[in-house]
Amino acid sequence: MSSLLNTILHGPDQFGKTFCSFSPDPPPPPDYAGAAKEQGKANIDAARIENRFNNPNVVSPYGTQTVTWGPTFDQAGYDKAMAEYQSKLNQVNGVGRPAARQLVTTWGGEPVAPTRAQFTTSDQPTITQTLSPQQQALLDEGTKAKLSLSQLASRGAEAAGDVIGKNVDFSGIPDLPGNAEQTRQKVVDAMMQRVNEDYGRATDDRHSALIAAGIRPGTKAYDDQMQLLQRGLNDASTQAWLAGGQEMSRDFTTDMERRRAAISDYLTERQVPLNEVTALMSGSQVSNPFAMPGYAQNAQIQPAPIFAAQNALNQYNTDLYNVKAANAGNLQQGLFGLGSAGIMGGAMMMSDRRLKSNIVKVGQHPIGVPLYEYDIFGRRERGVMADELAQVLPGAVHTHPDGYLRVNYALIGGRDGLSL
Fold first, then answer.
1. For 200-243, how does the pLDDT look when each residue is reduced to its tens digit (9 = 90+)?
2. If you ran DSSP here, which 8-state letter would residue 25 be given?
3. Which of 32, 75, 157, 163 has a Cα at 20 to 30 A from 288?
4. How far is Cα 258 from Cα 203, in angstroms, rounded to an integer?
């Protein structure tokens, strides 16, 4: 038991800072700010590696692509840090030594001048593409041709301005066809002129012939013969109207075609300069033939999970502390029970001054040593000091192998001098 107690109180895994407490020390608070900074650095490192993986040097039949990582200097950040450093120097130089020491303590150390290296980074890639001689020649010729086409287009645009700048004018275009009925009537009149003359002569001849034959007007025979002549006249008139309609339609179509052709010629005259400019500008574009065949710039580098590891470590320490606290509570309860029954058996009780706290003298023991009240193992007790009793009655004091003194209260009549 004493060996166990000595291990608890003085071993490498002691559970308390005092002899009156067996509780373990709580784990240190996690440094989340430091972990966040380290995580930020890890993120930056991962980004740098990813940037380099995704920007390789390429050698192809078209030429080469070379990536360089040039330094970049943060002038604004450097100037700000230098101003802060100079401000601190002025504060130190403007006060006495005690105040200066206080400022340095507040800042956490002497002010240090920033260096240019602290504000210089080499994370910015520069990609240089160099075409092969053949590809460079093709690019030069294509650029020259494109420039020539652009110049022609520019002159064409100036010429087109003389046309496009004018309003559309159809005054010189043939008018829409006029009254088609006039055309029909002309055709009918032309065709019926001879028919009407022939009908007049035929009517006179038929009349004379019928009279000579004894057929008088008003008779049925006379009327039938004259109706035959009238029917021929009607047929001729119908044919004339049909021919007039056909001529009217042909004449209308011809006029419309003539008008459409004139409008088309007029619009073509306006559009030709624009078409020439469009054709010149829509030629094949000059492009860079360089490419990176078979390579995808999608490599992803994950940073080390430093912040997550800090959380996991904190949780582990907390769990370990809870286990130790539970074990210490159980052990303390068992030791208190043993103390109340008397450790080492009989009346030999632990009475070493080193194990006691809150010591108050309350009287005199009959054996001639002071009597005290004190705290030991979490309890308030009354008794003597073993080192003082050893000077009066050495036989009542025993040194245990663990190095602590014990008192046999049975030899001195109990804690108050009374018989046990």
1. 888 888 888 888 888 888 898 888 888 888 888 788 888 878 88
2. P
3. 157
4. 46
Q: What is the DSSP letter of 416?
A: T
d(CA 106, CA 109): 8
Q: What is the pLDDT of residues 3-60, one digit of tens each?
A: 444 444 444 444 434 444 456 777 787 787 788 878 888 888 887 787 777 778 888 7
3-class state of residue 131 by DSSP: strand
Q: Are 399 and 389 in contact (CB under 8 A)?
A: no
First to last CA, the chain: 24
What 3-state class would DSSP assign to 345? coil
Q: Is the dihedral of CA 19, 20, 24, 25 positive or negative?
A: negative
Percent residues over pLDDT 90 in the chain: 14
User: Cα–Cα–Cα angle for 160, 267, 149, nearest 5°?
Assistant: 35
Specify the pLDDT at position 124: 73
User: Residue 293 has which token pair?
Assistant: 């065949």
Domain assignments of the chain as residue spans, ordered by start: 1-15+24-56+308-341, 68-121, 180-258, 346-420
* Tokens describing residue 151: 């110049």
Query: Using one digit for the tens of pLDDT, what is the confidence trace for 265-282?
Result: 777 776 776 676 676 666
Q: Is 283 helix (H, G, I), strand (E, B) or coil?
A: coil
Other Cβ atoms less than 10 A from the Cβ of 377: the count is 20
Tokens of 9: 């109180």
Residue 173 near residue 262, CB atoms below 8 Å: yes
Distance (Å, whole) CA 390 – CA 395: 7
What 3-state DSSP class applies to 66?
strand
Question: CB-hemisphere CA count at 13 Å for 359?
Answer: 13
